Write a sequence for this structure.
């Protein structure tokens, strides 16, 4: 059981690195979407007994993160007629190296933390830390609003992963609420992206400095 | 009529003045003068009867019930406000007319009434919140009056400096009143001397009111603001607005307990302000700036009196404290009167010549006989010469100091020092006004602008005459004003309620009358000699040099050169000299400028340091979202490290 799960989490970490290494926006979106879908299946593996609520959570997560949000982003890409290039502030190789360092650091940190025995042998905690840091790197190192949304999604995936530790105690409503928040956030950002594009003729968030005062 | 109705009439008059300021200058003049007269009558009634007036309607402003109160101290300051306000109002109707200043005169009249109204409100408010509101409004009104000539960059800079300094003062006053309200449990003001835990708040009040009063070294805003404001505004600023700071100090040292060292600190600040104020005044070449520094000096004299009164109050209300307080309070009036007279006189010179630079004036006595005579009267008064009012109040302070010395009390040594400093101040002030009168009114005109001038009209002359007459009256009959002083002293400390008229004051009054009679007799004698023998004009003795010019006269700088040399360590004058060198010297020039040392050497370096640091820190806020996220991450990491380290402990 934990073998499958570790494999999936490892795969998710791989997608974070892929998002860091991609030079085109659609592939960043795709990486974030696949990561979301993989993580969406995890609740099914964590629960020993079959429970329709867990299935509902998994299906909801996969639908929203794997289809709805990426579609919203792609539509924003098309509607705002954005150049597909990712414009990195930190280059792809340094980003990757940072991501790798984050994964190593997260693994080291995970082994230090006093975890419960059933969580100690899984990659849940290191995986979640690594994903959060990769999300942060993506947020910091990219200039276009869409890639920042992807960074935000990956960041959220990391938090979600950490939340799985508590899946037995977290009510369904909280899960559903988080998902709804995320969708609305992406929806709003999609609108903002369009507005920024119209106002500034670019999606470079560096241009937003003119709004600081 | 009760004081309440009179104050209501005054308030209505001043508000009506604000509304008529733009449309009808005549209505404004009448309404404002009526208001001033009503305030004057109300305050005199209160001081004569000795019965405080209280008014607490069920009227809430800002969550606090209105509470107006007219007691001895309020009435004492209100009289000065009404006299100076009335004089300035009439003066400005000729000095700052719609014809000469079409853009700034109408609004100036409205701000003027706002200033008078709110200073009056500060004086009668007995609620901390309303006190602060009125204080802030009068501060802002004064700002707009100072910047009447806002097309001049110096006037804008002066206004800005004034506004900044006033708001620093306001921060301290906010802290003072808020802490007072928090500790006393209410914004209501009143005597609370038994709450000894309120004593430390005095220091906040000292800084807050001290900036407004222009105590050295908090006076940085004062010289440029007084110099650049229109002259009637300078008169009210110097005569009344800085006295609001003194009012605050007198009021709250009377109502609240003070720390043990408070009196000593106030007296020491007084000595510093008095001596250095006059030293800076000697270094000035700008007529109004010079007068402004004399305000610092006179505030110092007032504080010496107040400080020794506070020391005496802390040691069982010795009689010398009473004298010192009476001297301080009377000097509030006197300084208000003669400084306003001098500023109005300076305004008349400025009106006639268009310059405040003393080195371009000269020989104005013949062209401006009224202005020159009245200015000389004010100069005699401010220099503390008998038989005028300046001598009376300084005499009372001296009496207090001498009695403190002979009482061998705790303040004996300090009183010796203060008396010497006061004497030094008087001597320097005399030198300074000899310089002013000599350079501006005597000799020959130093430039063309000083040649063709005309005397001011009666609306500028009458206020000066009234102020001059007040100076003479207080000088000749000081006993008449003793009841007012006694009532105000009793309002400060109830223990001082039954004080007798000091015998030396009676003697002084008689001496002044005799001296005045002698002066008049001598004048009549001289006048008859002149009539009898006739006057013949001849050239000034020129040491055999046949072609003297007006440029060979003593200048303001050369007259005061020796004395300012003594104070070089603090004045730090900037001198640029190209002295004559060869046998047949070609060109030579000399330039001297005394800057505002505290501002340029203390405040500005500190401010630029703060500016540099904050500019550096401000670069962190550049608007790049990516970096903000990085800050966020750094913060999180720092928190995590903190949590982990805290966990291991």
């Amino acid at each position: 059981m934990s073998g499958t799960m570790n494999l999936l989490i490892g795969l998710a970490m791989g997608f974070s690195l892929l998002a860091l290494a991609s030079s085109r926006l659609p592939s960043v979106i795709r990486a974030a979407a696949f990561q979301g879908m993989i993580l969406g299946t995890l609740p099914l593996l964590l629960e020993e007994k079959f429970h329709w609520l867990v299935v509902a959570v998994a299906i909801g997560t996969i639908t929203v993160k794997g289809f709805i949000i990426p579609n919203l982003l792609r539509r924003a890409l098309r509607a705002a007629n954005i150049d597909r290039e990712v414009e990195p502030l930190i280059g792809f190789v340094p980003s990757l190296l940072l991501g790798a360092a984050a994964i190593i650091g997260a693994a080291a940190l995970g082994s230090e933390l006093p975890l419960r025995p059933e969580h100690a042998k899984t990659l849940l905690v290191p995986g979640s830390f690594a994903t959060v840091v990769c999300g942060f790197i993506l947020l910091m190192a990219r200039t276009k609003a869409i890639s920042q949304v992807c960074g935000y999604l990956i960041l959220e995936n990391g938090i979600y992963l950490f939340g799985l530790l508590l899946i037995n105690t977290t009510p369904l409503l909280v899960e559903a609420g988080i998902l709804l928040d995320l969708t609305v956030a992406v929806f709003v950002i999609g609108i903002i992206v369009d507005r920024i594009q119209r106002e500034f003729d670019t999606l470079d968030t560096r241009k937003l400095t003119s709004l600081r005062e | 009529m009760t004081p309440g109705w009179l104050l209501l009439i005054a308030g209505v008059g001043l508000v009506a003045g604000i509304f008529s300021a733009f449309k009808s200058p005549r209505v404004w003049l009448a309404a404002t003068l009526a208001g001033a007269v009503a305030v004057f009558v109300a305050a005199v009634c209160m001081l004569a009867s000795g019965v405080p007036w209280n008014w607490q309607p069920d009227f809430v402003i800002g969550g606090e019930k209105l509470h107006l109160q007219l007691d001895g101290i309020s009435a004492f300051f209100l009289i000065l406000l009404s006299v100076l306000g009335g004089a300035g109002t009439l003066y400005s109707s000729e000095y700052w007319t719609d014809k000469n200043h079409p853009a700034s005169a109408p609004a100036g009249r409205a701000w003027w009434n706002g200033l008078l109204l709110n200073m009056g409100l500060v004086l009668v408010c007995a609620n901390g919140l309303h006190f602060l509101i009125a204080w802030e409004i009068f501060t802002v009104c004064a700002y707009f009056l100072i910047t009447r000539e806002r097309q001049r960059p110096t006037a804008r800079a002066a206004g800005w400096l004034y506004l900044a300094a006033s708001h620093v003062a306001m921060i301290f006053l906010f802290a003072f009143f808020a802490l007072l309200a928090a500790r006393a449990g209410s914004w209501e003001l009143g005597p609370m001397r038994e709450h000894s835990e309120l004593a430390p708040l005095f220091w906040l009040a000292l800084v807050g009111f001290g900036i407004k009063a222009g105590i050295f070294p908090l006076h940085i805003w004062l010289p440029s603001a007084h110099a650049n404001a229109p002259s009637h505004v300078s008169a009210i600023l110097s005569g009344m607005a800085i006295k609001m700071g003194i009012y605050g100090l007198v009021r709250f040292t009377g109502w609240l307990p003070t720390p043990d060292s408070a009196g000593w600190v106030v007296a020491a600040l007084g000595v510093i302000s008095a001596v250095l104020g006059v030293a800076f005044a000697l270094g000035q070449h700008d007529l109004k700036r010079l007068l402004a520094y004399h305000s610092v000096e006179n505030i110092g004299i007032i504080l010496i009196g107040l400080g020794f009164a506070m020391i005496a109050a802390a040691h069982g209300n010795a009689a010398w404290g009473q004298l010192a307080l009476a001297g301080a309070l009377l000097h509030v009036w006197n300084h208000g009167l003669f400084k306003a007279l001098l500023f109005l006189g300076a305004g008349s010179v400025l009106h006639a010549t268009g310059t405040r630079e003393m080195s371009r004036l000269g020989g104005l006595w013949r062209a401006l006989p009224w202005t020159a005579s009245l200015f000389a009267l004010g100069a005699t008064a401010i220099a503390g010469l008998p038989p005028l009012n300046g001598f009376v109040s300084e005499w009372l302070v001296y009496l207090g100091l001498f009695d403190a010395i002979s009482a061998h009390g705790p303040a004996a040594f300090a009183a010796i020092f203060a008396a010497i400093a006061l004497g030094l101040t008087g001597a320097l002030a005399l030198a300074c006004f000899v310089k002013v009168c000599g350079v501006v009114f005597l000799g020959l005109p130093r430039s063309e602008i000083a040649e063709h001038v005309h005397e001011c009209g009666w609306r500028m002359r009458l206020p000066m005459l009234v102020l001059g007459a007040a100076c003479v009256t207080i000088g000749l009959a000081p006993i008449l004003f003793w009841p007012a002083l006694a009532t105000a002293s009793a309002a400060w400390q109830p223990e001082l309620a039954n004080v007798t008229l000091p015998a030396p004051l009676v003697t002084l009054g008689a001496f002044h009358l005799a001296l005045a009679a002698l002066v008049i007799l001598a004048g009549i004698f001289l006048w008859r000699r002149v009539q009898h023998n006739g006057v013949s004009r001849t050239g000034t003795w020129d040491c055999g040099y046949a072609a003297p010019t007006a440029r060979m006269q003593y200048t303001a700088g050369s007259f005061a050169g020796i004395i300012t040399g003594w104070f070089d360590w603090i004045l730090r004058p900037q001198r640029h000299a190209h002295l004559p060198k060869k046998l047949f010297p070609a060109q030579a020039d000399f330039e001297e400028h005394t800057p505002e040392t505290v501002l340029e050497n203390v405040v500005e370096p500190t401010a630029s340091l703060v500016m540099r640091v904050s500019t550096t820190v401000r670069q962190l806020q550049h608007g790049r979202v990516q970096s903000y996220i990085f800050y966020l991450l750094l913060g999180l990491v720092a928190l995590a490290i903190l949590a982990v380290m805290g966990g291991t402990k």
Observations:
- Residues 69 and 186 of chain A are 7 Å apart (CA to CA).
